[in-house]
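Reading a protein record of the kind used here takes only a little practice. To see the layout at work, look at the sequence and C-alpha cells printed below.
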Amino acid sequence: MLSKMRLVQTGWRIEELQSVASDNHLEWRRPGRGGSHVIFSSPGVREIVSVPSKRPIKPIYIKQFLALVDAAIEVKQNEI
C-alpha cells in the first residue's frame, strides 16, 4: 500500500493511513474529545503530521505523511 501511496496521492482514507502507519512503526492518535484530525508521530522523529480525517484527504497531507514514514524508516535503519 505504501508504494501505491507514493504513486497516487489522492483518494486515500484515514483508515488506510493508519494501516500504513502501523506497518511502518508510526504511532497515531486522535486528540481528546473526538477531534476531527488524526496525529501521526514516530519515536526518534521530531516532526508530527496532523491529518484531517474527513474525506478526501488532500495530497499535501499525503506528502507530509510519506515524509514522516521515510524519516521513521531511516531512524529504524540507523538503530540496527
User: Anything to note?
Assistant: The mean pLDDT is 91. The beta strands are 27-29, 37-41, 49-52.
